[in-house]
């Protein structure tokens, strides 16, 4: 009996540890009680510079004291993790208002990842979303500094929320977070091995349609396009022969000309999902009134005032392609879009309307508008240096230590095609322990998977585009839960 009372007392004490001034008590646009506790606020990762990272934390709707804590990062570089919160796996579905200027309506998301985990949405690096620095020099940054800052964030966050220190910790993200996540995981592991306090109970990470290696990702497009019947056998064979299989860095004029022909052939497709329409060539009555399966955030191009920033939403097609990154410096998005003549099919209107509402900003504890004047899905104010190179060695190191790793790909994404991800998971160099097979959700084939030694898994999601939980929410929650539980998918 004494032990029971002691357990109740300790549970009460620990559940009171979270900073109460960070508690979110109401959300404009949502009627009803939240399914779990929400917290939001800032963690200062550099006192001398005043560098502050913003987070939104959703407690698990199941068993927050035991369920894993998962950090979510969107890509870019330069895109807010509210992308994941609003459009992918957050606790709400956002309904576009019928009246211009009205707030979106929020409804519970039955496939929210908070059904089975605690989840932190982090705006990183400083200058992205609601994160900021008082020293503008911090907006010139890169992979190494971003990983360092995110590690500091985690250490300080767990000091603020000590009741979650014993929970399993996982990192997750998509697109350019294919760089953010393994570099941060490496910092976390170094900290654990060096005895850094608090000790993080790190278990593994997952990356979706992840930027990984410029050469591998850059060579992935042509085989993907051919496999999807987007280019002819003749064009594929001629290009492969002229380029000697090297599509990333053409060495001859003939190769370059054929690659341009490939680009022209596929250039009008929706890079995030080749099955879905793009509206940048003019909207017709037919596609205007169609019942497209395209997620709300992808439906209409150029419909918001943030159309230029929207092009940055994901560090998209420009990343793996030849000639776009020079000396490690990621060029500006206007430069990329003008160079490639490419405009993604993305609409950020719902998120922009909600997150820039003064009542919403007050409710979720953002800094005043004099510091961060407006939220945008992606920012053009950071200058980002890709200074860590290929992620292969990071993955090799982390899997060799037994950390659980899942690389998943929507198989209709042309932004970071599955052909590249399948290649690099194989190049990790560990033996196959679960041969290529279908996996199932709701008694249907949901994709294909292959399991490797050292807890490495590769997974495709059938019919999904770049942002998998947005396209396939049911299937995503299914594989997400099984990955966290450490059971085969």
UniProtKB/TrEMBL annotation:
GO terms for biological process: proteolysis; secondary metabolic process. InterPro entries: AB_hydrolase_fold, Peptidase_S10, Ser_caboxypep_his_AS, Ser_caboxypep_ser_AS. It holds the Pfam family Peptidase_S10. Keywords: Carboxypeptidase, Disulfide bond, Glycoprotein, Hydrolase, Protease, Secreted, Signal, Zymogen. One of its GO terms (molecular function) is acyltransferase activity, transferring groups other than amino-acyl groups. Its EC number is 3.4.16.-. GO terms for cellular component: extracellular region. It is found in: Secreted. It is an enzyme of class 3 (hydrolase). The keyword ATP-binding does not apply. Residues 1-17 form the signal peptide. Belongs to the peptidase S10 family. Probable carboxypeptidase. PANTHER family: SERINE CARBOXYPEPTIDASE-LIKE 20, SERINE PROTEASE FAMILY S10 SERINE CARBOXYPEPTIDASE. This is Carboxypeptidase.
